[in-house]
Amino acid sequence: MAAQIIDGKQIASDIRTELKAEVQLLKRKGITPGLGVILVGIDPASISYVTAKGKACEEAGIYSDDNRLPVETSEAELLALVDKMNKNPKIHGILIQLPLPKHVDEQKVLLAIDPAKDVDGFHPMNVGKMVVGDKAFLPCTPHGVVQMLIRSGIKLDGAEIVIVGRSNIVGKPLANMLIQKSPVGNATVTVCHTRTKDIAWHTRNADIVIAAAGRPNTVTAEMVKDGVVVIDVGVNRIDDSTKKNGFRLVGDVDFEAIKKKASYITPVPGGVGPMTITMLLYNTVESAKIMNKKSSMTP
Ligand code: NAP
Known about the structure:
This protein is α/β, with parallel strands linked by helices.
């Protein structure tokens, strides 16, 4: 059986089209969703993420307040900027591009964001709400994974799901979302990590395997059953002298071997990646609706 490829670019594009229509409706009511972005320093990857976010906002009709600050910006200056954004009614979501320079207490700056504008979903207030199943801003990458599964028609209710990786930004929130007593949850979830005794023992029994380890070939074809659904969150650079830049991107799973066995699989690139920024836009539009009392925020 050859797996169906889950096209993250297409799903992301569908959601962005829906968001664009929502933004147009909001604008007719005098509301323009706004995202405040803070980037400190000149890290090339961070600059490229922030540029992509700015472009995505523009395409969706979202106002973007882009703040690119020198690396020597002090913690006090950053906290003052966050405070200003918290109070600015034009800004419905705040995004601080990580990492921040070493002289800044990253946690302190993130905690200064008003939870009502925490569109990354990392503030403990939103994390807590998510865990107890209250309406909350869901972290973008795990929320993107859930949307990909739902929009591909994959049954979550009663599914055995194994997640490889337990980070605060992917594995843990994803596990929490998938176990919720909800039509878009109701799965039985196992989370594996570097201290798991036998990962293959778990993955072989899984209907859905989600890899978020940050290591190529963490999941191989021998580790999964026929017909499995595989979502690959990992993004790893590996040397490739045939490429102009000397590297190529691969995920955490052995894509070529597993696609012969799986029913569905996501590619890297072009799988989960495009969903992350899309769900950030989603949260920003939701925030604008909530602040103007017109919410349909998940769950
Ligand atoms: P992270 O913070 O480094 O966490 C990795 C997790 O995987 C840890 O829990 C670690 O276990 C576990 N792990 C690592 N190697 C393992 C192995 N060999 N076997 C079992 N578990 C293993 O990474 P992250 O931030 O969650 O990101 C994970 C991957 O997703 C990275 O490749 C990252 O680039 C990618 N990512 C992609 C997007 C996107 O938009 N597509 C967004 C975020 C992240 P321990 O806890 O025991 O150390």
